[in-house]
Amino acid sequence: MGADIPEEFPRQEFRQSKLPYQLAAYAASMILPLIVIKIVSAILPPVFSSSPFVGLVAWCLMVAGCLIVLTKLLSRMDFEKPVVTIEPNAVIFSETRTKMLPWTSISKIKFYESGQLRQTKTFVFHMAGGGKETFSLSQIAGISARQLFDTIRVYHRKFGPQPAQGGPGYDSSAWTGVDDD
User: Whole-model pTM?
Assistant: First the structure.
């Protein structure tokens, strides 16, 4: 980064949110043991029909086991790695594959929300050479997808290609017949 870049445009890193994955793990830990118990009680009726206490203890033990397994699986996911990095030179997406897009090669940026309850957030970058890059993001920690789009647009306006200045300015003497000598 050069010394001419204002402090108002620092490098920003955005990470994937851990909360949706944790909530899904907790819900699965509660539901999966219940399904297993229902299947076992349908196959082997006398096991849990004699005492509901046995079923409750089995459910609690399976919930604890599922929580341990799913927590271990979540710990293997890297939530500290930035998914989107915005800097004065480029925007970098690294959720599925790392892709660096220099601001000077981006001509236009669009944002779409689609799917049920508008849960799919898609960023479309129209490149100066005529190509198109598309990125879909899941939950970003600490910022909404719309706010991230607005931040990307601010950086693009500042560091992207500047619109070409037109030819000579407006000259009223050209059409009035009055010439400046």
Answer: 0.66
